[in-house]
Amino acid sequence: MPDLSPSQSVSATGLVDRHFVLLLLLAIVVRGLAAAAAPQLPLTDADGDLAHAAAAIRYQGFVGPFTGNPTAFRPPLYPLLLALPLACGLPPAAAVLLINLLASVACSAAAGWLAMSLLHSRHAAQLCMLATIFAPLLLRYSIQPMTEVPCAALLTLACAACARSMSQPERKTWHVLTGLLFAAATLTRPAALLAAAGICLCLLALVLLSRNESADRRMAPLAPVLLTAGLPLGKAPWLLRNALQFHAFIPATTHGGYTLALGNNPDFYQDVIRGKGQFPWDGAALDHWQRQTLAQATQAGIHPADERALDKFHYALARDTIRRFPVDFLQACGLRFRRFWALGQAGNSTTPVGVITAIWYLALWSGVLLRLLQLSASPRRILHHSAEIPLWICVLAFNGTHLVYWTDARMRTPIMPLLIAIAALGYGSVRRHRRPRNGT
């Protein structure tokens, strides 16, 4: 079994070697084979990212694909990245595969960098890269026009940069870079904004807690300030554009109200929570709710093209539903929690792919559970491994966001590399404790 325990003699830069390059090539090959096996998936534009990219080229701006009007309904970064190869003449499927392959390579490299920063072990970093390459969710959505894998890459890079900034507090550029990377992650999945805010507060608390520590263990006082400065700096183009187009402060999107109301409305509670309807809620029932809700908004004097007004209307509708049906809301939160973690989803476990997937998740959840048990047995341990804290904050932020908003297992994809790193910490600690004291 490879040694997962920390070794201070191995630096983070020691990760880049022949095996590192081969693993990145393996990530490309695996995704190329997956795309060849399902050639229809790169064109399955469920979220309209390809449509937004094509509209950005046609109208020379980030606009709605059906209206041609400026929009803030979707996060802008991924569609604009897709627009670059499309503008160069690549067909849509090739554009999706190019951007997603680059994101997958960055995600695997970032996972190795993060594991090296946390465990200081080349073997652990390479195993984390390997696990990221074959992670079912990351593999599945790496060949579709969706934001999950780009967000996973940016979020993992941000956590790796945060870990480096904690180990080298004198290098102030790392703190700013961390903020910029988190800003980019929020422009692919808005849930990352809550994670970034939590990490800023965490760094501030660590600065206060480490005031009485020795100089080499003291947290840099400017760390939370510089990270907080990097966050709005990275989001400045989006904030400025929205201020000019909509005359309003829109830090995320105008999509949040719809996704909140989608999972918290009387029809959903009646069909799925109290009835026998299956999750996900789609088909005729969903179409009926969408038409009914749009008609109510129109009767209230809201134009269908007014994104901000519709967003506020959906938020008000969801809040009213939650207030009127608190028990159903709590049951819906429980359902979303199970769906986010895919608990109890057996799937087709008799096929070879199903068996391999089950073994993969068994190894992952066992490692995460080990780490949870280790931290619960000694809560102060995490204070001595402060670089691990941002990982947990990201996990809690994404889980907390999708506890109330519309959710399925896909929403867990961006934090999968972080969960792999946490599992490696759990296994690494067990390996280290099992070593004989005499070192033989």
Topology:
Elements: H1 18-37, H2 49-59, H3 77-87, H4 92-119, H5 122-134, H6 136-141, H7 148-167, H8 172-186, H9 191-209, H10 223-246, H11 256-262, H12 266-273, H13 284-299, H14 307-324, H15 326-341, H16 352-377, H17 381-384, H18 389-404, H19 416-434
Summarize the structure.
The chain is built from 19 helices and no strands. With 440 residues, the protein is mostly helical. It starts with 17 loop residues before the first helix and ends in a 6-residue tail after the last helix.
Would you give an account of this structure?
Helix 4 runs antiparallel to helix 5 (122-134). The chain contains 19 helices and no strands. It has 440 residues and is mainly alpha-helical. Residues 1-10 have low confidence and may be disordered.
The shape, in one word, is globular
- Please count the helical segments: 19
**Kindly state the mean pLDDT as a whole number?**
87
**How big a fraction of the residues is strand?**
under 5%
Spell the H/E element sequence. Answer: HHHHHHHHHHHHHHHHHHH
Largest sheet: none
Q: Look at the helices and sheets and give the structural class.
A: mainly alpha
Gyration radius (Cα, Å) is 23 Å
- Low-pLDDT runs of 5+ residues are 1-10
How many strand elements?
0
Q: Termini distance?
A: 16 Å
Helix content, binned percent: 55-70%
